[in-house]
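ok, trying the design again with the full structure, not the truncated one.
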């Protein structure tokens, strides 16, 4: 298991950009399957014509 360590000040801009990227990635990983599921259900129900 590769573990990369990086050293920087917690109050630096790198810290906040990494946190926002992690949050957006988690949000995408949750929203993407839900979006696919919603699309499949709506298509099966005939909402797309």
């Amino acid at each position: 298991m590769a573990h990369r360590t990086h050293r920087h000040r917690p109050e630096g801009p790198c810290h906040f950009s990494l946190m926002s990227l992690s949050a957006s990635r988690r949000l995408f990983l949750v929203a993407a399957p839900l979006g696919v599921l919603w699309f499949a259900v709506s298509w099966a129900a005939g909402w797309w014509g």
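Keeping the full-length input from now on. The chain has a mean pLDDT of 77.
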